[in-house]
Amino acid sequence: MDCEETHCFTSAIYRFQVSMIGRIDDCAKTECGNLNPNFQHSEYSIFARMCWSKNVHEERDAPDQILLGASDPHYCVLLGLATWMELSLKKYGKGKLLFSFKGKQCPIQVKEAADAKLKTALHHPDFEIIQVSI
To answer: What is the pLDDT of residue 16?
Structure first.
């Protein structure tokens, strides 16, 4: 198993999902061409567009959204995307999908891979569930 690829993929797709406030299946469909520079604030942001968004009736109406970097490398979506894109491009060349895990170009397989990695993490004995009573 290639841990580096798995870690980069999982980190990037879930940072992207949280930043876009999106569903994992819509994130899995994101294409490389849907990331564009934000020339107004190029040092810390980019434009991203998913195939679907709230309050949209057709896919083509989904607006560009701004992804902002973070000063903490553990949370920075731009750092996560850059790391994933560099590794993926080096291993598999340019593909259509942004999150083509193991070179797969099927959004359903990408979503299933992301789901499987999250389930593995949640069921790991080191993942401790803390219940807070109010």
So the answer is: 95
Position 19 scores a pLDDT of 92
Cα–Cα distance measured from residue 47 to residue 102, given in angstroms and rounded to the nearest whole number: 25
pLDDT in tens, 10-56: 999 999 999 998 889 899 999 998 999 999 998 899 999 887 656 66
Is residue 100 packed enough to be buried (19+ CB in 10 Å), middle (13-18) or exposed (0-12)?
A: buried
> Is 0.85 surpassed by the pTM of this model?
no
> For residue 99, how far is the Cα from the chain centroid?
7
Nearest CA-CA partner of 24 in 58, 60, 51, 56:
51
Using an 8 Å Cβ cutoff, are 55 and 38 in contact?
Answer: no
**What are the start-end ranges of the E strands in 7-128?**
35-37, 45-48, 65-68
CA 109 – CA 131 distance, rounded (Å): 33
Q: What angle do CA 33, 38, 43 make, to 5 degrees?
A: 120
